[in-house]
Design a protein that fits this description.
With 440 residues, the chain is of the alpha+beta class. It is built from nine helices and 21 strands. The longest helix has 17 residues.
Length: 440
Amino acid sequence: MLSPHPISVGLTATTLLNVGLTMMVSVAPTLVGGITQSAAAQNTDSADIESDNLVVIETPQVESLLTEINRERERLGLPAVQLQPQLMVAAQAHATDMAEQNFFSPEGSDSADLEVRVRRTGYPYRLIAENLGIGQADAAEIVQQWLDSTGYRLKLLNPDYQDVGIGYAYNPDSDFGHYWVLVFGASDEIGRQPESNVTQTLLALTNQARQQACLPLFEAHPTLTAVAQTEAAAIAVGETPTSSLVLQQRLAQLQYPTVEITTLQALDAPTPSAAWAQWQAQAASLAANPLQLYQQSQVGFGVAMAEEGEGRFWTMMLAQPPMAAIALPTVEPFVQERGRLEPGIDPVLPVDGSTYDLYSFVADAGQTITVTLSSSTFDTYLFLFNAADVQIADNDDISGEDSNSQLQITLPCDGEYTVMVNSYDPTSEGEYDLSIYNSP
C-alpha cells in the first residue's frame, strides 16, 4: 500500500515513511522496505530467510541510491553492484529500527551488529560491510557524504563487493529525520563466477607464479583491497602515489596495523594480465623483489578507469601483518627432536658465526604445519626452507614475553622442506626441543 505521507508502523505511535511502503503486523504477506516476505520470516534470530521467497521492489529511494552508487563505481572502472533480497532485508530492518527508536548507531536497538543482522537473513557471505547515512532526503547527497569519508569511500569503491542491500526510513519526529543503510556483500554462493572478480583474478595470477617458485601463497585481505582501490582511483585522476608511511597510517586507522608494506603500480593496462606483467617488471627492478619475499603474506588489489581515455590504473598492495597467535595442535607431532647447539661441533652460519642444526621432512602442497622451537638456555630462532634452499618462513620470538619460536604455514608445493634451528645471539649454546605438527 503506497502512501505519500508519514504513516504508523507496527504497534508504536511513531510516524514513519518506510521507503514509501506500509509495514503492518499481520499473518498475511507483508511489505518490508522494498522486500516482500512472509510474516513468519520477520524478526527472527535464527531462521534463515530464503532468497527465493523474497522479491526486490525498487522504490524511488532504492533506485536513486543504487543509480548513484553504480555511477561512481562505473566511472572508476569498477563492476556495478546488484540488489540482493536478503541484504535488502538486513538493510531495511536497521533503517526502520533507527528511525522508529530515534538513534543512530551501527548496532541495533537489540544490540545486533551487522554480522548478526546479515546472518539472520541467511545470506552466505564471505565479505560484508555497511555504510550509514542520516539527515538527507536526496540519494546523491548521501552518496557524496560517503565519498567524502575515507572509511565509507573505501567500502563504496571496493571492487570485491557484488551485492548490495539498501534501506531507507523517514521519521519527522526523530532527531535526524532521514535514515539510510547500505549493506555490501560478496558471496561464495554456487553460480558466482570467481573469474569475474577483480581481486580473485589478480590473486590467481600472482599465486600461480608463487606456487611455481614454491613460495607461500598470498592471502587477499579486504582492508588492503579497499585501500589499494582508493590509491588506484587517486592515481587515475592524476594524483601522486601515496607514501608508504601515509598508507601505513591509513591502514592503522582501519585496524590493520601492518609491519611492512610494498605498493606496485600498473599504468594504462587494459587487462589483469597486462597489469600483472607490469608489476612483475617493476618488482624485478627493486633491490629485493617483493613478489619473491615470504614476509609479506597478505595482498590487496585496486583498479580504476581514467576520467579521460580508456586506460586503467592498477594498484597492488603487499603487507606483512603482525604475527597472530597460533594455537598449538592437539595431535602428536610428526617430527619431535631434542638437540643441542654446540659451538665448535655444529656447522656455522657465515653471516654471523652462529651455530645451527638442520632437520628435513617431506610434505604435500596445501599441507598446513605448525613448528615450535623452545629452549631454557638460549633465545631461539627458527627458519624454514623449501627444496631449492629458499627461505619461506622464520620466527624469532612468540611474543615480547616469550623468546621461544613458533610458526605456522601452508606449504606451497610437494617436496622436501628443511627446518633450521638457530639462536638470536651468535654466542648461544644449549639444549632445545623441536616439534613439527600437522595443523587442521
